[in-house]
Amino acid sequence: MKIELIDVYYRYPGQQEYALKNINIVFEAGKIYLVTGPNGAGKTTLLLVTAGLLKPEKGDVILNGVSLFKQLPGARRLFGFLFQNPDLMLFNPTVYDEITYSIRQICNDEERIKSRVKELLKFFEIDENILSRPIHTLSYGYKKIVALMSILIYNPKILLLDEPHTNLSRKFVEKLKKVIVLNRESGGITIIASHNRNIYRGLADYIIHISNGEIVKIYNIYS
C-alpha cells in the first residue's frame, strides 16, 4: 500500500494564498509519519488532502497507483481521520450510537458489531456503562477516545490523526501509542499532525517539517 502526493497545490475558497504548494511526498505501508510545523503551516490541510476530504486545485493524490479521486467513495473505508476537535465528528445521541455509526454503513451483522464494541472497550479499559451516556455529558478527553473508537471499529489501514493526544489522560495517551504501533505492525500507514514531537519520540519513522504550506524537510530517524 502506498499514497503519493504529486505536485499538490490547494487553496481554500476565497483565499489568494495557497494553503499547500509544491507538495511531493510518498507515504508507505508499515510506516509512521509525524508532520510538524507552526500554526497555519498547513499540517491539517495536508492530512485532509491525503484523505481525499479536500481535492487539490493542482496535482493529484495517488493510492496504489491510481488517483484517489477516481476510487472514492469506495476507498473511503481505508481511511480513518481523527479531527483535533472531536465535536466536529460526534453527532449521534449516545456513545454506542456514535461508535457504531460508521461500521453500520458497511455491516449489518449486529452480533459482530457488538463484539467489536466490546473489543474496543476492553482495549481502552473503559466500562460498558459508558455506552448509554449522551455524548454531550462526556469530558473532552472521552469525546476524543469515542471519536477514535468510531474510526477503529471498521479497521481502517490508513490513520490520519490531527493532534490526537491533546486533552487525553496518560493512560489514554499510552493506548493511543499502542494503536499507532499496531497499525504499523499490520502494514498500515499512520500520519500524525502535531506540534509535540516529544509525545511521538521513538514512534515516528519520518518527521516531516512543513512551513507556509510547503514541505521544508523530511527527516528519516534511522538515517
From TrEMBL:
Annotated keywords: ATP-binding, Nucleotide-binding, Transport
GO cellular component, as recorded: ATP-binding cassette (ABC) transporter complex
Subcellular localization, as worded in the UniProt entry: Cell membrane
Pfam families associated with the record: ABC_tran
Family annotation (SUPFAM superfamilies): P-loop containing nucleoside triphosphate hydrolases (SSF52540)
Gene3D superfamilies per the UniProt record, alphabetical: P-loop containing nucleotide triphosphate hydrolases
Domain of life per record: Archaea
Domain ABC transporter: 3-221
InterPro entries the record matches: AAA+_ATPase, ABC_transporter-like_ATP-bd, ABC_transpr_CbiO/EcfA_su, ECF_ABC_transporter_ATP-bd, P-loop_NTPase
Role this protein plays: Probably part of an ABC transporter complex. Responsible for energy coupling to the transport system.
Name by which UniProt lists this protein: ABC transporter related
Species this protein is from: Ignisphaera aggregans (strain DSM 17230 / JCM 13409 / AQ1.S1)
